[in-house]
Amino acid sequence: MINQNPPTPAAPAALRTLGILGSGKGSNFAAILRAIQAGALKARVGLVLSDNPHAGILDLGRAAGIEVGTIDEPRFKTRLSPEVERETVQRLLRAGVDLVVLAGYMRMVKEPLLAAFPGRILNIHPSLLPKFPGLESWRQALEAGESETGCTVHWVDAGMDTGPVIAQERVPILPSDSPESLHARIQEAEHRILPRVLAKICA
Q1: What angle do helix axes 179-202 and 27-38 make, rounded to 10 degrees?
Q2: Which residue range forms the structural domain that includes residue 56?
């Protein structure tokens, strides 16, 4: 007997929803968007938030038709107060976010976010961690006389750039390098490695 009813196709797997936090122009966010548009990254961006109301990352989000918002924290420069961070958590949850990406976000993440997204917050950092955590890592590497540096994608914990490393890409330091030229080459590596790591996590 021939079965006249064709099998029901399997429903497509739900896409992971990314929440992006950034403080600057958003070049890593742009790399994520390109990977999504090319089909290399099976995810969607549900929300883009910035602690800088003039950040270019917000313009990129608006241009892509993604919900954007600002984080208003007048009291602290390097972290959010617990109440502001709890509100940030609620905004991410309302957008359906299940994976948080720090893409040039310049504040420390504390307990409200860590508790809401355990093992689901990752960061891109411009050095080969554990070397040169903190600000302007490319300048630190250059001043230390290193022959190479690079970038690191890592899970976020309560420390400064201390979470478990996911992946790294090395960048040689050239004799002619200035802080600006070295930073530009590290950013090129960041734009390759971050979408690639996200694609593996979201596969």
Answers
A1: 40
A2: 16-128+151-170+190-202
Are 16 and 42 in contact, with CB atoms under 8 Å apart? Answer: yes
150 forms beta bridges with: 170
SS3 for 108-150 is: ECCHHHHHHCCCCEEEEECCCCCCCCCCCHHHHHHHCCCCEEE
In a domain, 90, yes or no: yes
Kindly report, residue by residue over 149-178, the tens digit of the pLDDT. Answer: 999 999 999 999 999 999 999 999 999 999
In 3-state terms, what secondary structure has residue 23?
coil
Residue 14 has pLDDT above 80, yes or no: no
Annotated catalytic residue: which of 125, 154, 183, 191?
A: 125
Let me know if 191 is a catalytic residue: no
